[in-house]
Amino acid sequence: MKLIPKGSKLYSIIHLKCPRCHRGKFLQSPAYDMSKITRVRSHCEECDLNYKIEPSFYYGSMYVSYAVGVAIMIAIIGFFLIFPDEFSFLKTFITLVVVIVAGAPFINAVSKILWANLFFKYDPKK
Ligand SMILES: [Zn+2]
User: Fold this and answer.
1) Is-contact 26 18, C-beta < 8 A?
2) How far is the CA of 2 from the centre of ligand 1 (A)?
3) Residues having C-beta closer than 5 Å to ion ligand 1
4) What are phi and psi of 46, to 5 degrees?
5) Which of 27, 33, 90, 96 is most buried, with most CB under 10 Å away?
6) pLDDT of residue 38
7) What does the pLDDT read at residue 6?
8) Ligand 1 centre and the CA of 25: distance in Å?
9) Is residue 86 in some structural domain?
10) Does 4 map to a domain?
């Protein structure tokens, strides 16, 4: 049994699947493939959805990426504030830099699929 059922946007986001059919892959390669870093496919291989509905469509995902990055930073700072014995500015700063830099490809991929999910709806018939 899957924890997140097909049909919810969260399924598409977590599995990086087509926002319409939830079966086709969204990216050309895994998020950490540095040769094709988070390149989006042109069409869904399952339902033929055009992922790029207009030129530069995924530029808007930069705003989502910023919000995701800030949310991660707030979560890290919140963690250190919850456990004050672990708190130091240097430790917090190093943790932030490592997590944001190491997670950048994944944050970028998640931002693009979040952006796509704002414009495409799930359609089980496709
Ligand atoms: Zn599809």
Assistant:
1) yes
2) 19
3) 18, 20-21, 24, 44, 46-47, 49
4) -100, -50
5) 27
6) 80
7) 83
8) 8
9) yes
10) no
What is the number of structural domains in the chain? 1
Instruction: For residue range 7-27, list pLDDT tens digits in order.
Output: 889 999 999 999 999 999 999
Task: Name the residue range of residue 105's domain.
Answer: 9-119
Domain membership flag for residue 125: no
- Blockwise average pLDDT, block size 10, the chain, 126 residues: 81 94 92 84 94 93 96 93 85 94 94 96 85
Given the structure tokens 């390149």, which residue do they identify?
39
Taking the centre of ligand 1 as the mean of its atom positions, its distance from the CA of residue 98, in whole angstroms, is 34
Q: φ and ψ at 20, to 5 degrees? A: -90, -50
Ligand 1 center to 20 CA (angstroms): 5
- Rounded to 10 degrees, the C-alpha dihedral 75/81/82/88 comes to 110
Report pTM: 0.86
- What's the confidence (pLDDT) of residue 93? 92
Residue 126 lies in a domain: no
